[in-house]
Amino acid sequence: MAEKPLLSVRDLSMIYKTRKGAVSAIDHVSFDLRRGESLGLVGESGCGKTSVAMALLRLLPDNAQITGGQILLDGVDLIQLSEEEMQNIRWKRISMVFQAAMNALDPVYKVGDQIVEAIERHERDIDPAEARKRVEALFKLVGIDPKMADRYPHEFSGGMRQRAIIAMALACNPDLIIADEPTTALDVIVQDQVLRELRQVQKQMGMSMIYISHDIAVIAEVAERIAIMYAGRMCELASAVEIFKRPRHPYTVALMSAFPSIVGEKRPLVALGGEPPDLLFPPPGCRFHPRCPRALDICKQQQPPFEDIGGGHYLACWNPAPVVEVQS
Amino acid sequence: MTPNGIPLVQVVGLKKYYPIGGNIFSPGKLKVHAVDDVSFTIPAGKSLGLVGESGCGKTTTGKLLTRLIDPTAGKILIADEKNNLVDLAALKGAELKRFRRRVQMIFQDPYESLNPRLTIFDIVAEPLAVQGIGTVLDREVMVAKMLEQVGLTPATSFMFRYPHELSGGQRQRVAIARALVINPSFVVADEPTSMLDVSIRTGVMNLMMDLAQKLEVSYLYITHDLAVARYTSDDLAVMYMGKIVEYGPTEEVLHHPLHPYTRALISAVPVPDPTFKRGAPEIKGSISKPINPLPRCRFYERCPIAAKVCEDNDHPPLEDKGGGHQVACYRV
Fold first, then answer.
1. What is the ipTM of this complex?
2. How many helices (H) and strands (E) does chain B have?
3. Of the candidates B192, B259, B272, which has an alpha carbon nearest to the alpha carbon of residue B224?
4. Other C-beta atoms within 10 Å of A117: how many?
5. Residue A176 near chain B (CB below 8 Å)
6. What number of other Cβ atoms are within 10 A of residue B157's Cβ?
7. With contacts defined as CB-CB under 8 Å, which chain A residues touch B231?
């Protein structure tokens, strides 16, 4: 690839220290993000997808510790930056949209004022009137009536609040926006509107996006490439079409066969047995092997490398599923 | 057991209005029409999916059917052991308690619906104890059998543990065991899988469907997720602001939706296929609360095909368009 990626995560590992011991939340995770690209990060609760997002922003709780790896943003390792330098990265270069929109807005301040404050904090010399103007433009961009800037959060519906949060995340024109389950609490019709808004704005502004979700249907609609995580590790990473049509990791295959859809033929859903492992004591070898229908002896002993198997399709598996065109 | 054709559950003109404002001496004049004149029938052995957005009244309907709350008006007819339809809405005291053997509920959040101080045995045996079924020893056998049936095997290794020792999926299996242990004929399941991860969710869904067949139970399956409803329900009822706007066989409703609201809802559901191009749902504005609603179609303000007839007349009645596919719309 000629173009240098915007973000390059290399062998990132992180633990949470608990009274019982170290929880291996992220283990040797690597991926690249190109400029203007949207990457979907999929996995179940506790697989480490939100931890990756928090590590990128260095917003980790006190008991978290990055134990190895690099997070290169345009070649600069974010892990090595001081807290002060990191504050110049957050919002300006990397911003985030969280799941709980209600908690992200202060109920006693007008929504517009909160966004103006965010802009002023990061661009000290900006003229207040200009900040104000930018808020109006942002509101228009995400499909909210600019007059709503003078209202309080409780006067916003759930979907509007989430859009206001998106507007706030866009306020300093970041290179990368991390969206962590931004529509999970919303009803489908509102979710659809927010997703459309988000995708359009991302394309229009040429931003990169990491979209985190457990819902592969939502990911299918927003992401150009998809990364699948399981128990703190990367299983598979490829273009969206490749992941859905030619999944190779048995976990990816299991996710696809367990997921219901309202279109197409009603095929039986196949459940995956067992439960994700306790990351205090992760299983040796491949972390998926206790639940894997294709597990071999080697899977119990050795961790499979995460490698390109051709055409930018990355896979960590000793015994990948055969290539079968999945009919939709 | 109810033979085919005889309804197991028949709901007629069910209403629940909540007063807002006012005080204990004078109730408020404004009322939220949470459930407004809802009627449907569930044949024995079939399951009905109740879908809609938050606040549409689907959970209130579920609570009414289990008499966790009392209806403002309407009948809830449920077949008893001799296939006679009994009005649950009119039962009181000991009669109501006895009838609870027939009707059970599974809640959404297995982290809140199980008492953390009770063992799994105590939780699952509680309905038996309340109804005075069997001796303690009998109950132990029944609970063990039920736990095995919900896939918590071997039962002896789960019986004397506490909910905090179990995962979300296992807890929900305990909640299912508790609902089914007294052999009910009808279970209201309110979003039973929405808190679970995909790989766990499908296992619980499949389990519920297997048990429905084995134990001859019917579900009222309440969910916001149409794809889940497709796999758990024979029939589908779509609710909007306290009204059922469309009702019929699940595949028929999903593939040939007639009501403009159902159409919008279906076209908003993301599809797990990156090559699938979904159109934008045709709907205006956002949902509001049915507080003293005007006598016109509830969907009027948001409807893409609304006309004068929809404003001049009260909310349209459900009308059969063939094959049991019913729609409440003047314009279809």
1. 0.88
2. 11, 12
3. B192
4. 15
5. no
6. 11
7. 260, 266, 269
Closest chain B residue to A263, measured at CA: B271
Q: What is the pLDDT of residues A61-101, one digit of tens each?
A: 999 999 999 999 999 999 999 999 998 898 889 999 887 65
Helix axes A188-205, B260-267, angle to 10 degrees: 50
User: Any chain B CB within 8 A of the CB of A65?
Assistant: no
Backbone angles phi, psi at B249, to 5 degrees: -55, 135
Residues in B lying within 8 Å of A, measured between beta carbons = 53-54, 167, 169-170, 197-203, 205-206, 224-228, 230-231, 251, 254, 264-266, 268-276, 278, 280-281, 283, 286-287
Q: What is the CA angle A287-A62-A41, rounded to 5?
A: 40
Q: For chain B, what are the domain ranges? A: 8-102+184-327
Domain B8-102+184-327 is classified in which CATH homologous superfamily? P-loop containing nucleotide triphosphate hydrolases (3.40.50.300)
| pLDDT tens across the length of chain B (332 residues) | 344 567 899 999 999 999 887 777 877 788 899 999 999 999 998 999 999 998 899 999 999 999 999 999 999 999 988 888 999 999 999 999 988 999 999 998 988 999 999 999 999 999 999 999 999 999 999 999 999 999 998 999 999 999 999 989 999 999 999 999 999 999 999 999 988 888 899 999 999 999 999 999 999 999 999 999 999 999 999 999 999 999 999 999 999 999 999 999 999 999 999 999 888 899 887 777 888 898 999 999 999 999 999 999 999 999 999 889 999 999 98
CB contact under 8 A, B199 and A258: yes
Task: Enumerate helices (H) and strands (E) in chain A, giving the number of each.
Answer: 11, 12
**Quick check: B299 and B239 in contact, CB under 8 A?**
no
With a CB cutoff of 8 Å and minimum separation 6, the contacts of B64 are B14, B16, B35, B70, B71, B76
Cα B275 to Cα A76, A192, A224: the distances in Å are 36, 17, 11
Sequence-distant (6+) residues with CB within 8 A of A312 are: A238, A239
CA distance B65 to B43: 15
Task: List for chain A the helix, strand, coil content (%; round to 5).
Answer: 35, 25, 40
Place of tokens 């598979």: A236
Q: Under an 8 A CB cutoff, do B201 and A258 touch?
A: yes
pTM comes to 0.91
Residues comprising chain A, all counted: 328
The minimal CB distance from A44 to the residues B199, B228, B283 is found for B199
Among residues B52, B55, B49, B50, which one has the least CA distance to residue B34?
Answer: B55
Distances B81 to A8, B63, B290 between C-alpha atoms, Å: 66, 22, 38
Helix, strand, coil shares, percent, chain B, to 5: 35, 25, 40
Tokens of A47: 């697989």
